[in-house]
Amino acid sequence: MRVLIYAKNTLKQSIIAPSLFEVGENLLELLATGRTSLSQHYHDLLMSILKAGYWSSDKDKHGPYSMPQKLGVFALEMLAATRNETIDWDSYGIPADRFWLECARTGLTETHLLKVAEWMTSLCDAHVQSSNVAGDSGGTDVLEGHEIDDPTHFLWPITVHAFIKLRLQMDLDIPQEIDHPLMRTSFAPFAGRGFGQKTWKTEPWFVEVFDIAAALETELNEIRLLVI
Predict the structure, then answer these.
(1) pLDDT value at 79 more than 90
(2) 3-state SS, one letter per residue, for 177-188
């Protein structure tokens, strides 16, 4: 959510927006966990930044892209596909990676299950290839196509899980199983699980400890609904 706050400041202060891959990764995590209301708000904010030109390749705003963009394009284009729309990335001066763009535009709404399985398998491969496993977090590797920078996402395929969640949201079928190692990690159950509701019961002792802490640090009250 730090990116979301930074993005808001971007619109107010007319400064360079956060990296497109970074906001794409954040949006995909929201989609992968089924947090529809948050992802919609985030999407609208990102589109505002896009239309304002802060991600333009204009040298006075962002500088030219050295590589075709993946995660930001994929996330925003998938949401556009749910409304039978597309985004003209060329008009924004943003080069889009062909696979990630077509996976969002064509794969997401494909009705033939065998073809859907092929898209999802290819998406798993692309997720692995795009993970920044050999570079430093936030380093130059992310600018060379290894856009999945959060280590928790190396084995948690948020790209595939977001794909699944959006298909289910559109009442489209998904294959029962994808034969890929990435879909057999400990994160596999997340694909069919929503995170809109709490999955744990708050114990009385935790509420008491939280109240004591919040009395000492009042800013904790801002997250009360998230933890209690």
Answers:
(1) yes
(2) CCCCHHHHCCCH
